[in-house]
Amino acid sequence: MWVTRWLAIGLLGLGLVGAGCTAAEQSSPAPPPPPPPPPAKRELVRWADGICTLGTAIKGVRSAAPQADTSSGTATEFLGQASTWVGDAEKKLADLGTTGLPPADAYASTMKDWLGKLKEQVNARQAPAVVSTLTEFEPKDAELAERTPELRASYDVAPNCTPVGQAGPLRDLVAWSNVMCASVRTLSELRVDPLADPAVSDPRFQQAAWAALGTYITSAGQPLTDVNSQLNNLKPTGIAEADAYRDQTLSAVTAALAKLPPPTAGSSEYFQLPFDQLKAKATEVADIVSTAKPKEPGLDAIVAKDKNLAEAHALAPACERPQQTPTTAADGTDLAACQDGQCQVLITGSADVTAAGSTFKIAVTSSGVTVADATGALTLAPGGEGSFGSGTTKITVKLVSLTGTDAIVDVRGS
Q1: 360 class by beta-carbon count within 10 Å (0-12 exposed, 13-18 middle, 19+ buried)
Q2: What does the alpha-carbon distance between residue 385 and residue 409 come to, in Å, rounded to a whole number?
Q3: Region annotation Disordered: residue ranges (predicted)?
C-alpha cells in the first residue's frame, strides 16, 4: 500500500515537472522579424527615376515605329527621329552611372547593349532591323525593384516610377519637391542680359546680331511657359508656407508671361527694325523676364521649417546640389592650346578662341556663356553643350563650370 502511494506521488510529481517543461518551451522568444528594407537614398531615387523615364520613352518610340512599309518616307523620318532619341538615351543612361547593386547594374548594362545595337542599325539606315530590335528589350523596372530590396524604397518614391509597395505621403512630397526645385532652377537661370551676347556687342559678328536678339525676344518666354505648366499641375502639400511659395512663384510667372510678346511672333519681323529699336525691345523683354526670378526667402528656407518636407527634399533628384566642378582648367588660360582642335580653358569676361581653323568669341554672362561667330550664336548654361560651324568644320563647346565672370569650357573642333 505504501508502495502504491509512493508511485502515485512520484508519477504526479513527474507529471508536474513534465508540464513545467512544456510551458517553458511554449514561452521561448519568437525569432526576430526580418529587418525592414533599407530606406530610400537620393542617389538611388535619381537612378530609379532615370531608368523609369527611359523605360517609358522606349515604349513611346516603339509605338511610333512604322508598322508596314519600312522603305517609305515615313520610315526615313522615323530613322531620323530614332537617331536623335538613341543618342540622347545613351547619354542619359551613362549619366545615371552605377548603383553598386548587381541586379540594377546588370539591368542597366542590358539596356546599354541594346541601345548600342539599335544605334548601329539606325546609323546603317536599316529600318526593318530597327523596327525589329525595338521589341527585343522590354522595360521591367518594376520587377527589378521587387527583387532588389535595397532599391525598393527609393524606387517607390521616384516621381516617374509606379510604386511596387506603399510609399505613403513621402512620395507626394518628393514629387512636389522635384517639380519645385526644377522650376526654381529654371527661373534662376533665366537670361536677362541679351545685350551681352557677343553677336550684339562685337561688330565682327553683327551679321548674326538681328537673329540673336530676335531669337531672344521670341524665345525668352519658353522657360516661363514650361514652369507655368509644371506649377499649375502641382498638387498642394497641405503645408501652408510651402503651398504659398508655390502660389507666389506661379503668380510671378503668369504675370510675366502676360506681358511678353506672343510666342507665335516670328523673329523675322525684327529684321525690319533699326538695330537700336531691336536692342531696346530685347532689353524690355529682359526686364519683364527678370520679374519671374525667385525671390527671398527662397525654397531652401521654406523646406527647412518642415521635417517631412525636408526629408522629401533630401531625396528629390532635382534638388540635388550640382556636383563640384573643376576650379582649374586643364590648359589654364592658354587659348593657343585650342588651335589643334581640343582644349579646356578658363575664360574671364570674354575672349576670342580659334579651334580647327575657326575663330569665334566666348563671352561669360550672368547665367552661362554665349558663343558667336559669323554664322550665329548659341547660349550655354552650366553643363550645357552646343555645336556650330559651316562647311566641313564643326565646333563643339561645353560649359564645364561657371563662377562669377569666370567660365571653364571644353572646346572640340572637327
Answers
A1: buried
A2: 10
A3: 22-42
pLDDT attached to residue 263? 64
Name the one residue in this structure whose C-alpha cell is 519568437. Answer: 30
Please tell me what DSSP assigns to residue 315.
Answer: T
pLDDT given at position 275: 87
Give the residues of the chain that fall short of pLDDT 70. 1-27, 67-73, 263-268, 322-326, 391
Domain residue spans of the chain: 42-157, 169-319, 335-413
Residue 398 DSSP code: E
Q: Name the H helices within 97-126.
A: 102-123
Q: List the Cα angle 46/98/94 in 5-degree steps.
A: 80
- CA-based torsion, 202, 203, 208, 209: positive or negative: positive
pLDDT digits (tens, 9 = 90+) for 183-200: 999 999 898 988 888 878
* 135 touches 143 (CB < 8 A): no
**H/E segment holding residue 412:** strand 406-413
- Helix axis angle, 222-232 relative to 169-188, nearest 10°? 160
Q: What pLDDT was estimated at residue 21?
A: 46
User: CA of 302: how far to CAs of 99, 130, 251, in Å?
Assistant: 31, 49, 18
Neighbours of 235 (CB within 10 A): 11
- The count of other CB atoms within 10 Å of the CB of residue 128 is 12
Over residues 236-285, the pLDDT tens digits come to 999 999 999 999 999 999 999 999 987 655 556 777 788 899 999 999 99
| Cis peptide leading into residue 32 (ω within 30°) | no
Asked whether 134 and 86 are in contact (CB, 8 A), the reply is no
Mapped onto helix, strand or coil, the DSSP state of residue 299 is helix
Compute the residue count for the chain. 414
Cell representation of residue 270: 525684327
